[in-house]
């Protein structure tokens, strides 16, 4: 039997919105399996969240940069939030974004690229030596279209082009560039707010869809619904799920009476031609990284020689 810790209960509570005792029961029933515990809560109707949000655990900055039909987003991590306010670190993030824009958006390629007489990796190591904190280029992505624009949005901006979250949206269109850029920024803000899993249902991981179907079916099976009824309820439930996690099906945050697909169609008049979302990327600072929580008072006491 797995040991159920307070940290595990807290994590499950934060990701589902369920009560503390329910979370403890779910973890106990599933032998500490976090994903299975989420499903257990949802089957019992106790979970308020359809999916687990990435835990923002690391510090640093997300940098985004666009130029016409291409855009890049990078994540550069540091140990503390103080470093994100450091001008040298901020300059490093902007420099890395520039390098990514003009090279392949691949961590190893970027690190090996030259900036003046030194590589990006050497510049990162110099910053580590000067500032006194460990830093790393964690990831990088790019989007590009043959015609149209790539727009960006930074949420929680610390400086121009860098902050706590960065989004790119690529629009494929032969329409007016200025109108496309404005539309692209609105869509990037939407992606920042809603965190879609895919452009449409066809882009979802089949395993994710299967898991959703199984959760829905088991929930209503436990309520004693007959199998033929369950099948219809599951199909209806999947349509609702797609509206939550598929970008084109989501309610557009700038006009919730329309879906993103409908808003795109309406925008074609202003743009002067068909518009297609060619792709999107959303980086939230530190998502998926576990952060070591420390007792600050204990550290201070230890540093001063106290027990």
Structure notes:
With 307 residues, the chain is an alpha+beta fold. The chain has helices at residues 6-16, 20-29, 34-43, 81-84, 87-102, 107-112, 120-131, 177-194, 206-222, 227-245, 260-271, 296-303; strands spanning 59-67, 70-78, 114-115, 118-119, 135-144, 148-159, 162-172, 251-252, 255-259, 276-284. It contains twelve helices and ten strands. It starts with 5 loop residues before the first helix and ends with a helix. The strands form three sheets. Strands 1, 2, 5, 6, 7 and 10 form a six-stranded antiparallel sheet that branches. It has a two-stranded antiparallel ribbon with strand order 3-4. The radius of gyration is 23 Å and the shape is flat. Helix content is 47%, strand content 23%. Residues 48-57 have low confidence and may be disordered.
Give structural attributes:
single chain, 307 residues, two-stranded antiparallel sheet, 47% helix, 23% strand
Mean pLDDT: 88
User: Quick one: how many beta strands?
Assistant: 10
Structural class: alpha+beta
If helices are DSSP runs of H or I spanning 4 or more residues, what is the number of helices?
12
The main β sheet shows up as: 6 strands, antiparallel
Strand content: 15-25%
Note the gap between the termini: 35 Å
Low-confidence stretches: 48-57
Shape from CA axes? flat
- Listing every helix as H and every strand as E from the N terminus to the C terminus, the arrangement reads HHHEEHHHEEHEEEHHHEEHEH
Q: Which value, in Å, is the CA radius of gyration?
A: 23 Å
Give me the secondary-structure topology.
Layout lengths: L5 H11 L3 H10 L4 H10 L15 E9 L2 E9 L2 H4 L2 H16 L4 H6 L1 E2 L2 E2 H12 L3 E10 L3 E12 L2 E11 L4 H18 L11 H17 L4 H19 L5 E2 L2 E5 H12 L4 E9 L11 H8 L4
Antiparallel strand pairs: 1-2, 1-7, 2-5, 3-4, 6-7, 7-10, 8-9
């Amino acid at each position: 039997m797995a040991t159920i810790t307070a940290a595990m209960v807290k994590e499950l509570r934060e990701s589902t919105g369920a009560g503390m005792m329910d979370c403890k029961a779910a973890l106990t029933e599933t032998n500490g399996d976090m994903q299975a515990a989420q499903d257990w809560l949802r089957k019992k109707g106790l979970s308020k969240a359809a999916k687990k949000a990435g835990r923002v655990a690391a510090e640093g900055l997300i940098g985004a940069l666009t130029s016409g039909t291409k855009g890049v987003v990078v994540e550069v991590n540091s140990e503390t939030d103080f470093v994100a306010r450091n001008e040298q670190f901020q300059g490093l993030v902007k420099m890395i974004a520039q390098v990514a824009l003009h090279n392949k958006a691949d961590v190893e390629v970027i690190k090996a690229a030259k900036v003046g007489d030194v590589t990006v990796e050497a510049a990162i190591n110099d910053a580590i030596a000067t500032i006194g904190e460990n830093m790393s280029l964690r990831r990088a992505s790019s989007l590009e279209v043959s015609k149209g624009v790539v727009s960006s949005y930074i949420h929680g901006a610390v400086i121009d082009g860098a902050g706590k979250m960065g989004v790119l949206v690529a629009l494929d269109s032969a329409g007016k560039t200025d109108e496309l850029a404005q539309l692209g920024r609105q869509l990037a803000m939407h992606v920042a707010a809603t965190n879609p899993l895919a452009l449409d249902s066809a882009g979802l991981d089949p395993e994710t869809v299967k898991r959703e179907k199984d959760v829905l079916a088991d929930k209503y099976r436990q309520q004693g619904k007959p199998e033929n009824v369950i099948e219809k309820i599951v199909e209806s439930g999947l349509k609702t799920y797609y509206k939550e996690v598929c970008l084109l099906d989501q309610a557009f945050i700038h006009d919730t009476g329309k879906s993103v697909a409908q808003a795109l169609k309406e925008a074609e008049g202003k743009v002067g031609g068909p518009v297609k979302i060619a792709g999107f990327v959303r980086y939230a600072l530190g998502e998926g990284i576990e952060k070591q929580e420390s007792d600050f008072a204990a550290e201070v006491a230890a540093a001063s020689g106290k027990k």
